[in-house]
Amino acid sequence: MKLKPFFAAAVLGLSAALAGCAGGPAQIFTSNYGTVTDAGYQLPSVPITKIPRQYHRQIISYETDEKPGTIIVDTREKFLYLVMENGKAMRYGIGVGREGFEWSGTARVAMKREWPTWTPPAPMIKRQPELAKWRGGMPPGLSNPLGARALYLFNKGGDTGYRLHGTPEWHSIGKAMSSGCIRLLNQDIIDLYNRTQIGAKVVVKG
């Protein structure tokens, strides 16, 4: 049976409303993981279809008492939320610290760096002596573990040693396999970097 235009529009509107009630994302950015040229580097595209859909960047409904601009990291669910206006948040999939390297607490974004240098901490060099060659810092690049961007987390005691950073290891998103830092896809850390202010509050939930 062919629906009259008005009735068809009403049905479509009801379907959209029901989808909203189901808590679906307001907007999902699955198509935003292609090749990116940035500061002379060419970031390869991410095989995003191999990453579970819940870890794709998306705007969702999110209730919190934290102010817009706050970053909330849920290490159990492997999500990072950037609080937005009007009960929304940008949600990113993340990789987190493996067992023995977890961290939780409250910090601030003290510094932001594009294509940062990575300096492995002494305990990591002790565990992996082959990293000693980077004691003075590994230059920026596509193979650098910090990826395209890094946000440096400080608290009252100073530098926590933890970072929110990019990673070329897309397969680590949604898993616990880092040395404690929070890693995002390079395309996602660029997006988060552009939306985050120095001094932003960061809440990491264990």
UniProtKB/TrEMBL annotation:
User: Could you name the active-site residues?
Assistant: H165 (proton donor/acceptor), C181 (nucleophile)
User: Which InterPro entries does the UniProt record give?
Assistant: LD-transpeptidase, LD_TPept_cat_dom, Transpep_catalytic_dom
Task: Tell me the superkingdom of the source.
Answer: Bacteria
Which residues does UniProt call coiled coil? none
Could you tell me which SUPFAM superfamilies the record lists for this protein?
A: L,D-transpeptidase catalytic domain-like
Point out the signal peptide segment.
1-19
Q: In which pathway does it act?
A: Cell wall biogenesis; peptidoglycan biosynthesis
Print the keywords alphabetically.
Cell shape, Cell wall biogenesis/degradation, Glycosyltransferase, Hydrolase, Peptidoglycan synthesis, Signal, Transferase
Every copy of the L,D-TPase catalytic domain together lies at 69-205
Name the family.
Belongs to the YkuD family.
Q: What is this protein called?
A: L,D-transpeptidase
> From which source organism is this entry?
Chelativorans salis
